[in-house]
Amino acid sequence: MSLIDTLNGDLKAAMKARDKQALSVIRMLKSALMNEQINVGHDLTADEEVSVLSRELKQRRESLSEFENVGRQDLVDGVKAEIAIVEQYMPKQLSDEEVQQIVADTIQQVGATGKGDFGKVMGAVMPKLKGQADGKLINQTVKSLLN
Hints:
Elements: H1 3-17, H2 20-40, H3 46-69, H4 73-87, H5 96-110, H6 118-129, H7 135-146
């Protein structure tokens, strides 16, 4: 079953439950997926679906930090609820230790020795962790292990 089918089922459930927050977020996710499907011209693969979800999650996290910086608690609460709903559709996230182990293995595989190999390591590790870990966490882990 594709993610769009899952979203359709959850959309109906949210309508029946009169859950406006979930309904809004699910509609937005479905719209983003459908737009991406139109842009690429074929049914989305699982990786492409995860990319769209990751992009939507990243946008909400950026909004959350901006709202926290300006002290808009009313907006912070709403965005946190949206993040929780989007995260339900994301693949299981890896722990910090798991990310660190994968990054360490990748550093050995590519033969990285210092900061100058940052790009090479990131290029090799991102496809392995796509959708399973936050990009900031991966970036920080690579930097700390290369130092």
